[in-house]
Amino acid sequence: MDVSSAVACASDTIAAIATPPGTGGIAIIRVSGPSARQVAGRVFRPARQQRSEEPSQGHRPKWRAKLGGVFDSNGQFVDEAIMLSMLAPASYTREDVVELSCHGGPVVARAVLQAVLDAGARHASPGEFTRRAFLNGRIDLGQAEAVLQVISARTDRARRSASAFLSGQSGSIVSESREAVVQLMTRIEASLDFPEDDIPQIEVIEIGETARRIAMDLYGAASEVYRGRILWEGASVAIVGRPNVGKSRLLNALLREERAIVSDWPGTTRDTVSEVANIRGIPIQLIDTAGMREPTDAVERIGVERAKGALADANIALAVVDGSMLLSEYDQAIVAITPEDRTIVVVNKSDLAAAFDDGDLRCHVGNRRMLRVSALAGSGIDQLEAEIEALAMAREGHFDDGARSFGTRIADCLRRSAAALDDAARASSDGVPADMLSIDLRAALDALGEITGETAREDVVERIFEQFCIGK
Length: 472
Ligand code: GDP
Fold this sequence. Notes:
By secondary structure, the protein is α/β, with parallel strands linked by helices. The chain has helices at 3-9, 36-43, 106-118, 128-135, 141-152, 156-166, 172-193, 201-233, 247-255, 297-313, 329-337, 358-365, 381-394, 406-429, 434-452, 458-466; strands spanning 14-17, 24-32, 44-46, 63-71, 77-86, 97-104, 122-123, 235-240, 273-279, 282-288, 316-322, 343-348, 369-372.
Protein backbone atom coordinates (compact mmCIF):
# COMPACT_ATOMS: atom_id res chain seq x y z
CA MET A 1 0.00 0.00 0.00
CA ASP A 2 1.05 3.59 -0.49
CA VAL A 3 1.85 4.63 3.04
CA SER A 4 2.86 8.20 2.19
CA SER A 5 -0.52 9.11 0.69
CA ALA A 6 -2.31 7.57 3.67
CA VAL A 7 -0.26 9.73 6.02
CA ALA A 8 -1.24 12.81 4.03
CA CYS A 9 -4.93 11.87 4.47
CA ALA A 10 -4.58 11.69 8.24
CA SER A 11 -4.63 15.47 8.52
CA ASP A 12 -7.74 15.78 10.63
CA THR A 13 -7.92 15.56 14.38
CA ILE A 14 -9.69 12.59 15.95
CA ALA A 15 -11.08 12.00 19.42
CA ALA A 16 -12.62 9.15 21.41
CA ILE A 17 -13.12 7.87 24.93
CA ALA A 18 -10.11 5.60 25.49
CA THR A 19 -11.31 3.93 28.70
CA PRO A 20 -13.98 1.21 28.88
CA PRO A 21 -17.64 2.16 29.34
CA GLY A 22 -18.96 2.20 32.89
CA THR A 23 -17.89 3.86 36.10
CA GLY A 24 -14.32 3.91 37.37
CA GLY A 25 -11.67 6.10 38.92
CA ILE A 26 -11.08 8.14 35.79
CA ALA A 27 -12.13 8.24 32.14
CA ILE A 28 -9.69 9.33 29.45
CA ILE A 29 -10.71 11.24 26.33
CA ARG A 30 -7.93 10.98 23.77
CA VAL A 31 -7.41 13.55 21.02
CA SER A 32 -4.84 13.11 18.23
CA GLY A 33 -3.97 15.15 15.16
CA PRO A 34 -2.43 18.41 13.98
CA SER A 35 -4.98 20.58 15.80
CA ALA A 36 -5.19 18.48 18.98
CA ARG A 37 -3.71 21.27 21.08
CA GLN A 38 -6.02 23.94 19.61
CA VAL A 39 -9.07 21.71 20.20
CA ALA A 40 -7.97 21.10 23.78
CA GLY A 41 -7.27 24.83 24.21
CA ARG A 42 -10.91 25.58 23.30
CA VAL A 43 -12.37 23.25 25.95
CA PHE A 44 -9.77 23.22 28.73
CA ARG A 45 -8.92 26.05 31.12
CA PRO A 46 -6.00 25.48 33.50
CA ALA A 47 -6.72 26.04 37.17
CA ARG A 48 -3.80 28.43 37.38
CA GLN A 49 -0.70 29.36 35.44
CA GLN A 50 1.71 26.56 36.14
CA ARG A 51 5.40 26.53 36.58
CA SER A 52 6.01 24.81 33.26
CA GLU A 53 4.13 27.67 31.54
CA GLU A 54 6.65 30.20 32.75
CA PRO A 55 9.01 31.40 30.04
CA SER A 56 11.69 28.74 29.76
CA GLN A 57 15.13 29.05 28.29
CA GLY A 58 14.09 27.81 24.86
CA HIS A 59 13.28 24.32 26.18
CA ARG A 60 9.76 23.07 25.45
CA PRO A 61 8.82 19.92 27.33
CA LYS A 62 7.44 17.12 25.11
CA TRP A 63 4.95 16.06 27.76
CA ARG A 64 3.03 18.29 30.08
CA ALA A 65 0.25 17.74 32.62
CA LYS A 66 -2.10 20.47 33.83
CA LEU A 67 -5.03 20.46 36.24
CA GLY A 68 -8.05 22.47 35.18
CA GLY A 69 -11.64 22.41 33.98
CA VAL A 70 -13.40 21.30 30.81
CA PHE A 71 -16.02 23.69 29.39
CA ASP A 72 -18.60 23.04 26.68
CA SER A 73 -19.29 25.23 23.64
CA ASN A 74 -21.63 27.44 25.73
CA GLY A 75 -18.89 28.04 28.25
CA GLN A 76 -20.60 25.79 30.82
CA PHE A 77 -18.33 23.90 33.21
CA VAL A 78 -18.45 20.14 32.46
CA ASP A 79 -15.90 18.53 34.77
CA GLU A 80 -12.56 18.84 36.46
CA ALA A 81 -9.78 17.22 34.48
CA ILE A 82 -6.07 16.70 34.06
CA MET A 83 -4.81 17.53 30.58
CA LEU A 84 -1.79 15.56 29.43
CA SER A 85 -0.21 16.96 26.25
CA MET A 86 2.26 14.91 24.23
CA LEU A 87 3.90 16.72 21.35
CA ALA A 88 4.60 14.96 18.05
CA PRO A 89 6.46 12.70 17.60
CA ALA A 90 6.67 11.77 21.29
CA SER A 91 3.22 10.16 21.40
CA TYR A 92 1.44 6.87 20.60
CA THR A 93 0.37 8.10 17.16
CA ARG A 94 3.46 10.27 16.55
CA GLU A 95 1.01 13.17 16.15
CA ASP A 96 0.20 15.81 18.76
CA VAL A 97 -1.89 13.98 21.34
CA VAL A 98 -3.89 15.45 24.21
CA GLU A 99 -5.54 13.25 26.83
CA LEU A 100 -8.16 14.65 29.16
CA SER A 101 -8.60 12.58 32.32
CA CYS A 102 -11.95 13.39 33.89
CA HIS A 103 -14.09 11.65 36.51
CA GLY A 104 -14.84 8.09 35.49
CA GLY A 105 -18.55 8.00 34.71
CA PRO A 106 -20.06 7.18 31.32
CA VAL A 107 -22.21 10.33 31.16
CA VAL A 108 -19.48 12.74 32.19
CA ALA A 109 -16.98 11.08 29.80
CA ARG A 110 -19.46 11.46 26.92
CA ALA A 111 -20.05 15.13 27.86
CA VAL A 112 -16.28 15.82 27.75
CA LEU A 113 -16.02 13.99 24.42
CA GLN A 114 -18.93 16.03 23.05
CA ALA A 115 -17.20 19.25 24.08
CA VAL A 116 -14.05 18.10 22.24
CA LEU A 117 -16.07 17.18 19.11
CA ASP A 118 -17.86 20.55 19.20
CA ALA A 119 -14.43 22.18 19.37
CA GLY A 120 -13.47 20.70 15.99
CA ALA A 121 -12.35 17.08 16.44
CA ARG A 122 -13.88 14.15 14.57
CA HIS A 123 -15.03 10.97 16.33
CA ALA A 124 -12.38 8.29 15.77
CA SER A 125 -13.24 4.99 14.12
CA PRO A 126 -12.21 1.64 15.71
CA GLY A 127 -8.42 1.31 15.96
CA GLU A 128 -7.82 4.66 14.30
CA PHE A 129 -5.20 5.78 16.84
CA THR A 130 -3.21 2.57 16.35
CA ARG A 131 -3.72 2.87 12.58
CA ARG A 132 -2.08 6.29 12.72
CA ALA A 133 0.78 4.85 14.80
CA PHE A 134 1.26 2.33 11.96
CA LEU A 135 0.93 4.85 9.11
CA ASN A 136 3.36 7.21 10.84
CA GLY A 137 5.92 4.42 11.18
CA ARG A 138 5.85 4.15 14.96
CA ILE A 139 4.87 0.48 14.87
CA ASP A 140 4.69 -2.02 12.03
CA LEU A 141 1.64 -4.08 11.13
CA GLY A 142 2.85 -7.13 13.07
CA GLN A 143 3.23 -5.01 16.19
CA ALA A 144 -0.24 -3.48 15.66
CA GLU A 145 -1.62 -7.02 15.66
CA ALA A 146 0.37 -7.78 18.80
CA VAL A 147 -1.28 -4.75 20.48
CA LEU A 148 -4.62 -6.31 19.57
CA GLN A 149 -3.49 -9.63 20.99
CA VAL A 150 -2.29 -8.07 24.26
CA ILE A 151 -5.70 -6.43 24.67
CA SER A 152 -7.71 -9.55 23.91
CA ALA A 153 -5.50 -12.15 25.62
CA ARG A 154 -7.60 -14.47 27.75
CA THR A 155 -4.75 -16.01 29.71
CA ASP A 156 -1.53 -14.61 31.08
CA ARG A 157 0.54 -16.95 28.90
CA ALA A 158 -1.19 -15.54 25.78
CA ARG A 159 -0.51 -12.01 27.00
CA ARG A 160 3.19 -12.77 27.56
CA SER A 161 3.58 -14.23 24.07
CA ALA A 162 2.04 -11.09 22.51
CA SER A 163 4.16 -8.80 24.69
CA ALA A 164 7.29 -10.57 23.42
CA PHE A 165 6.27 -9.77 19.82
CA LEU A 166 5.45 -6.20 20.74
CA SER A 167 8.89 -5.68 22.23
CA GLY A 168 10.40 -6.83 18.93
CA GLN A 169 11.95 -10.12 20.07
CA SER A 170 10.13 -12.26 17.51
CA GLY A 171 10.07 -9.55 14.85
CA SER A 172 13.85 -9.66 14.38
CA ILE A 173 13.72 -12.92 12.40
CA VAL A 174 11.67 -11.02 9.81
CA SER A 175 14.15 -8.15 9.47
CA GLU A 176 17.18 -10.49 9.47
CA SER A 177 15.67 -12.73 6.79
CA ARG A 178 14.72 -9.74 4.65
CA GLU A 179 18.26 -8.42 4.86
CA ALA A 180 19.66 -11.82 3.83
CA VAL A 181 17.26 -12.16 0.86
CA VAL A 182 18.05 -8.62 -0.29
CA GLN A 183 21.75 -9.55 -0.31
CA LEU A 184 21.05 -12.59 -2.50
CA MET A 185 19.03 -10.44 -4.91
CA THR A 186 21.79 -7.88 -5.06
CA ARG A 187 24.27 -10.57 -6.10
CA ILE A 188 21.98 -11.70 -8.91
CA GLU A 189 21.09 -8.21 -10.08
CA ALA A 190 24.75 -7.18 -10.22
CA SER A 191 25.30 -9.97 -12.72
CA LEU A 192 22.32 -8.84 -14.84
CA ASP A 193 23.88 -5.39 -15.21
CA PHE A 194 27.00 -7.02 -16.60
CA PRO A 195 25.72 -9.94 -18.66
CA GLU A 196 29.18 -10.76 -19.89
CA ASP A 197 30.06 -11.70 -16.29
CA ASP A 198 27.46 -14.48 -16.01
CA ILE A 199 27.19 -15.88 -12.47
CA PRO A 200 29.07 -19.16 -12.38
CA GLN A 201 26.85 -22.16 -11.68
CA ILE A 202 28.73 -22.83 -8.46
CA GLU A 203 27.57 -19.45 -7.15
CA VAL A 204 23.97 -20.12 -8.22
CA ILE A 205 24.04 -23.29 -6.13
CA GLU A 206 25.48 -21.34 -3.22
CA ILE A 207 22.63 -18.81 -3.49
CA GLY A 208 20.17 -21.71 -3.45
CA GLU A 209 21.75 -23.17 -0.33
CA THR A 210 21.54 -19.85 1.49
CA ALA A 211 17.89 -19.53 0.41
CA ARG A 212 17.19 -22.99 1.83
CA ARG A 213 18.81 -22.06 5.16
CA ILE A 214 16.67 -18.91 5.45
CA ALA A 215 13.59 -21.00 4.54
CA MET A 216 14.33 -23.39 7.42
CA ASP A 217 14.55 -20.48 9.88
CA LEU A 218 11.27 -19.06 8.59
CA TYR A 219 9.47 -22.39 8.88
CA GLY A 220 10.73 -22.58 12.48
CA ALA A 221 9.50 -19.05 13.19
CA ALA A 222 6.10 -19.90 11.63
CA SER A 223 5.72 -22.80 14.07
CA GLU A 224 6.62 -20.48 16.97
CA VAL A 225 4.02 -17.92 15.91
CA TYR A 226 1.57 -20.73 15.36
CA ARG A 227 1.97 -21.82 18.98
CA GLY A 228 1.26 -18.21 19.99
CA ARG A 229 -1.89 -18.38 17.94
CA ILE A 230 -3.14 -21.40 19.88
CA LEU A 231 -2.62 -19.42 23.09
CA TRP A 232 -4.82 -16.71 21.67
CA GLU A 233 -7.51 -18.68 19.89
CA GLY A 234 -7.50 -21.68 22.15
CA ALA A 235 -8.90 -25.08 21.28
CA SER A 236 -12.12 -26.95 21.91
CA VAL A 237 -12.35 -30.26 23.69
CA ALA A 238 -15.41 -32.52 23.47
CA ILE A 239 -15.97 -34.75 26.49
CA VAL A 240 -17.84 -37.83 25.27
CA GLY A 241 -18.86 -41.06 26.94
CA ARG A 242 -21.89 -42.97 28.08
CA PRO A 243 -23.95 -41.64 31.01
CA ASN A 244 -22.49 -41.87 34.51
CA VAL A 245 -18.83 -42.37 33.59
CA GLY A 246 -18.03 -38.98 35.20
CA LYS A 247 -17.98 -36.50 32.30
CA SER A 248 -19.49 -33.64 34.29
CA ARG A 249 -17.19 -34.34 37.22
CA LEU A 250 -14.20 -34.34 34.85
CA LEU A 251 -15.33 -31.05 33.32
CA ASN A 252 -15.42 -29.55 36.79
CA ALA A 253 -12.01 -30.98 37.68
CA LEU A 254 -10.56 -29.32 34.56
CA LEU A 255 -12.31 -26.07 35.36
CA ARG A 256 -11.04 -26.49 38.93
CA GLU A 257 -14.34 -25.17 40.21
CA GLU A 258 -17.94 -26.32 40.23
CA ARG A 259 -19.79 -24.97 37.20
CA ALA A 260 -22.05 -27.73 35.88
CA ILE A 261 -24.42 -29.46 38.27
CA VAL A 262 -23.06 -32.89 39.21
CA SER A 263 -25.55 -35.38 40.56
CA ASP A 264 -25.49 -38.94 41.84
CA TRP A 265 -28.58 -39.54 39.76
CA PRO A 266 -28.24 -40.20 36.09
CA GLY A 267 -30.13 -37.72 33.97
CA THR A 268 -29.34 -34.47 35.76
CA THR A 269 -27.36 -32.85 32.99
CA ARG A 270 -29.58 -32.97 29.95
CA ASP A 271 -28.04 -30.38 27.69
CA THR A 272 -24.60 -29.87 26.34
CA VAL A 273 -22.53 -27.82 28.77
CA SER A 274 -19.78 -25.60 27.45
CA GLU A 275 -17.24 -23.76 29.61
CA VAL A 276 -13.86 -22.21 28.97
CA ALA A 277 -11.02 -23.47 31.15
CA ASN A 278 -7.50 -22.08 31.42
CA ILE A 279 -5.36 -25.17 30.82
CA ARG A 280 -1.65 -24.40 31.04
CA GLY A 281 -2.28 -20.92 29.71
CA ILE A 282 -4.40 -22.09 26.77
CA PRO A 283 -8.08 -21.12 26.72
CA ILE A 284 -9.82 -24.46 26.27
CA GLN A 285 -13.50 -24.69 25.52
CA LEU A 286 -14.84 -27.82 27.19
CA ILE A 287 -17.98 -29.32 25.69
CA ASP A 288 -19.74 -31.92 27.83
CA THR A 289 -22.24 -33.99 25.88
CA ALA A 290 -24.46 -34.79 28.81
CA GLY A 291 -27.95 -36.26 28.91
CA MET A 292 -29.31 -39.43 27.27
CA ARG A 293 -29.62 -41.61 30.33
CA GLU A 294 -32.22 -44.29 29.78
CA PRO A 295 -30.61 -47.56 28.72
CA THR A 296 -32.59 -48.18 25.55
CA ASP A 297 -31.11 -48.87 22.16
CA ALA A 298 -32.76 -45.78 20.66
CA VAL A 299 -31.27 -43.50 23.30
CA GLU A 300 -27.82 -45.02 22.88
CA ARG A 301 -28.05 -44.39 19.17
CA ILE A 302 -29.00 -40.78 19.79
CA GLY A 303 -26.19 -40.55 22.36
CA VAL A 304 -23.65 -41.73 19.81
CA GLU A 305 -25.08 -39.32 17.22
CA ARG A 306 -24.83 -36.46 19.69
CA ALA A 307 -21.23 -37.39 20.51
CA LYS A 308 -20.49 -37.40 16.76
CA GLY A 309 -21.87 -33.87 16.47
CA ALA A 310 -19.71 -32.62 19.34
CA LEU A 311 -16.65 -34.35 17.89
CA ALA A 312 -17.18 -32.67 14.53
CA ASP A 313 -17.07 -29.25 16.24
CA ALA A 314 -14.13 -29.98 18.53
CA ASN A 315 -10.37 -30.03 17.97
CA ILE A 316 -9.70 -32.63 20.66
CA ALA A 317 -11.79 -35.42 22.21
CA LEU A 318 -11.78 -36.93 25.66
CA ALA A 319 -13.48 -40.35 25.48
CA VAL A 320 -14.38 -41.08 29.08
CA VAL A 321 -14.93 -44.62 30.33
CA ASP A 322 -15.55 -45.92 33.85
CA GLY A 323 -12.51 -47.94 34.97
CA SER A 324 -14.45 -49.62 37.76
CA MET A 325 -16.81 -51.42 35.36
CA LEU A 326 -16.28 -53.57 32.31
CA LEU A 327 -16.67 -51.69 29.04
CA SER A 328 -20.16 -51.87 27.58
CA GLU A 329 -20.93 -51.89 23.87
CA TYR A 330 -22.05 -48.30 24.28
CA ASP A 331 -18.58 -47.37 25.66
CA GLN A 332 -16.91 -49.16 22.76
CA ALA A 333 -19.18 -47.49 20.19
CA ILE A 334 -18.28 -44.04 21.51
CA VAL A 335 -14.53 -44.70 21.65
CA ALA A 336 -14.72 -46.06 18.11
CA ILE A 337 -16.10 -42.83 16.63
CA THR A 338 -13.36 -40.62 18.12
CA PRO A 339 -10.46 -39.63 15.83
CA GLU A 340 -7.37 -41.66 16.79
CA ASP A 341 -4.86 -38.85 16.36
CA ARG A 342 -6.58 -36.32 18.62
CA THR A 343 -8.34 -38.32 21.29
CA ILE A 344 -7.38 -39.18 24.85
CA VAL A 345 -9.22 -42.16 26.30
CA VAL A 346 -9.76 -41.13 29.92
CA VAL A 347 -10.23 -44.12 32.21
CA ASN A 348 -12.03 -42.48 35.13
CA LYS A 349 -12.73 -43.54 38.72
CA SER A 350 -9.18 -44.78 39.34
CA ASP A 351 -9.91 -44.36 43.07
CA LEU A 352 -12.11 -47.49 42.81
CA ALA A 353 -10.90 -51.05 42.12
CA ALA A 354 -10.03 -51.45 38.43
CA ALA A 355 -12.32 -53.78 36.46
CA PHE A 356 -9.75 -54.26 33.67
CA ASP A 357 -6.09 -53.57 33.05
CA ASP A 358 -4.54 -51.41 30.32
CA GLY A 359 -3.81 -54.46 28.16
CA ASP A 360 -7.53 -55.40 28.06
CA LEU A 361 -8.37 -51.91 26.90
CA ARG A 362 -5.66 -51.62 24.22
CA CYS A 363 -7.67 -53.39 21.50
CA HIS A 364 -10.47 -50.81 21.81
CA VAL A 365 -8.18 -47.80 22.18
CA GLY A 366 -6.03 -48.31 19.07
CA ASN A 367 -3.53 -45.49 18.67
CA ARG A 368 -5.38 -43.13 20.96
CA ARG A 369 -3.60 -41.84 24.04
CA MET A 370 -4.80 -43.41 27.28
CA LEU A 371 -4.76 -42.15 30.84
CA ARG A 372 -6.19 -43.27 34.20
CA VAL A 373 -7.63 -40.47 36.34
CA SER A 374 -9.98 -39.92 39.22
CA ALA A 375 -12.15 -36.88 38.58
CA LEU A 376 -13.40 -37.25 42.13
CA ALA A 377 -10.02 -37.41 43.89
CA GLY A 378 -8.25 -35.19 41.35
CA SER A 379 -5.51 -37.72 40.61
CA GLY A 380 -4.12 -37.79 37.04
CA ILE A 381 -5.70 -34.41 36.22
CA ASP A 382 -2.30 -32.65 35.92
CA GLN A 383 -1.12 -35.25 33.45
CA LEU A 384 -4.40 -35.00 31.55
CA GLU A 385 -3.83 -31.25 31.26
CA ALA A 386 -0.33 -31.89 29.91
CA GLU A 387 -1.77 -34.26 27.27
CA ILE A 388 -4.45 -31.72 26.29
CA GLU A 389 -1.75 -29.04 25.97
CA ALA A 390 0.36 -31.30 23.75
CA LEU A 391 -2.59 -32.08 21.45
CA ALA A 392 -3.66 -28.40 21.32
CA MET A 393 -0.15 -27.28 20.38
CA ALA A 394 0.08 -29.92 17.67
CA ARG A 395 -3.23 -28.82 16.18
CA GLU A 396 -2.82 -27.91 12.54
CA GLY A 397 -4.92 -24.99 11.53
CA HIS A 398 -6.06 -23.87 8.18
CA PHE A 399 -4.61 -20.69 6.83
CA ASP A 400 -6.60 -18.31 4.69
CA ASP A 401 -5.60 -14.97 3.24
CA GLY A 402 -7.52 -13.04 5.85
CA ALA A 403 -6.40 -11.18 8.91
CA ARG A 404 -8.68 -13.20 11.16
CA SER A 405 -6.17 -13.64 13.86
CA PHE A 406 -2.71 -12.53 14.76
CA GLY A 407 -0.89 -15.83 14.31
CA THR A 408 -2.82 -16.94 11.25
CA ARG A 409 -1.73 -14.07 9.07
CA ILE A 410 1.87 -13.84 10.27
CA ALA A 411 2.46 -17.61 10.19
CA ASP A 412 0.95 -17.69 6.70
CA CYS A 413 3.30 -14.93 5.48
CA LEU A 414 6.32 -16.69 7.03
CA ARG A 415 5.38 -19.99 5.40
CA ARG A 416 4.75 -18.42 1.99
CA SER A 417 8.10 -16.68 2.18
CA ALA A 418 9.80 -19.94 3.18
CA ALA A 419 8.06 -21.81 0.33
CA ALA A 420 9.24 -19.23 -2.22
CA LEU A 421 12.82 -19.57 -0.92
CA ASP A 422 12.51 -23.36 -1.17
CA ASP A 423 11.42 -22.92 -4.81
CA ALA A 424 14.51 -20.78 -5.42
CA ALA A 425 16.71 -23.43 -3.81
CA ARG A 426 15.17 -26.20 -5.92
CA ALA A 427 15.48 -24.14 -9.11
CA SER A 428 19.16 -23.47 -8.40
CA SER A 429 19.96 -27.16 -8.08
CA ASP A 430 17.98 -27.84 -11.29
CA GLY A 431 20.35 -25.50 -13.13
CA VAL A 432 17.78 -22.74 -13.71
CA PRO A 433 19.54 -19.47 -14.74
CA ALA A 434 20.26 -17.06 -11.91
CA ASP A 435 17.94 -14.31 -13.13
CA MET A 436 14.97 -16.69 -12.84
CA LEU A 437 15.74 -17.13 -9.16
CA SER A 438 15.03 -13.44 -8.60
CA ILE A 439 11.32 -14.06 -9.19
CA ASP A 440 11.15 -16.49 -6.25
CA LEU A 441 13.34 -14.28 -4.08
CA ARG A 442 11.10 -11.29 -4.83
CA ALA A 443 8.03 -13.35 -3.82
CA ALA A 444 9.79 -14.30 -0.56
CA LEU A 445 10.59 -10.67 0.13
CA ASP A 446 7.01 -9.53 -0.58
CA ALA A 447 5.59 -12.14 1.80
CA LEU A 448 7.88 -10.84 4.57
CA GLY A 449 6.86 -7.26 3.73
CA GLU A 450 3.25 -8.23 4.36
CA ILE A 451 4.12 -8.93 8.00
CA THR A 452 5.44 -5.44 8.60
CA GLY A 453 2.77 -3.91 6.37
CA GLU A 454 4.99 -2.58 3.60
CA THR A 455 3.46 -4.85 0.95
CA ALA A 456 0.19 -5.68 2.73
CA ARG A 457 -3.01 -5.27 0.76
CA GLU A 458 -5.23 -2.38 1.85
CA ASP A 459 -8.15 -4.70 2.71
CA VAL A 460 -5.91 -6.84 4.93
CA VAL A 461 -4.73 -3.70 6.77
CA GLU A 462 -8.36 -2.55 7.07
CA ARG A 463 -9.47 -5.86 8.54
CA ILE A 464 -6.76 -5.75 11.20
CA PHE A 465 -7.72 -2.29 12.43
CA GLU A 466 -11.44 -3.06 12.29
CA GLN A 467 -10.88 -5.53 15.13
CA PHE A 468 -9.76 -2.80 17.54
CA CYS A 469 -12.16 -0.93 19.75
CA ILE A 470 -12.86 2.77 19.39
CA GLY A 471 -10.31 4.79 21.35
CA LYS A 472 -7.40 2.39 20.72
P1 GDP B 1 -21.74 -38.13 33.55
O1 GDP B 1 -23.10 -38.64 33.44
O2 GDP B 1 -20.79 -38.87 32.66
O3 GDP B 1 -21.63 -36.64 33.35
O4 GDP B 1 -21.26 -38.47 35.04
P2 GDP B 1 -21.21 -37.54 36.35
O5 GDP B 1 -20.06 -36.61 36.29
O6 GDP B 1 -22.56 -36.97 36.59
O7 GDP B 1 -20.85 -38.65 37.42
C1 GDP B 1 -21.66 -39.77 37.62
C2 GDP B 1 -21.39 -40.36 39.01
O8 GDP B 1 -20.06 -40.86 39.08
C3 GDP B 1 -21.52 -39.33 40.13
O9 GDP B 1 -22.06 -40.01 41.24
C4 GDP B 1 -20.09 -38.95 40.40
O10 GDP B 1 -19.90 -38.49 41.72
C5 GDP B 1 -19.37 -40.24 40.15
N1 GDP B 1 -17.99 -40.05 39.77
C6 GDP B 1 -17.51 -39.24 38.80
N2 GDP B 1 -16.17 -39.33 38.77
C7 GDP B 1 -15.78 -40.18 39.70
C8 GDP B 1 -14.51 -40.72 40.16
O11 GDP B 1 -13.43 -40.37 39.68
N3 GDP B 1 -14.53 -41.64 41.17
C9 GDP B 1 -15.69 -42.05 41.76
N4 GDP B 1 -15.60 -42.95 42.73
N5 GDP B 1 -16.89 -41.56 41.36
C10 GDP B 1 -16.95 -40.66 40.35
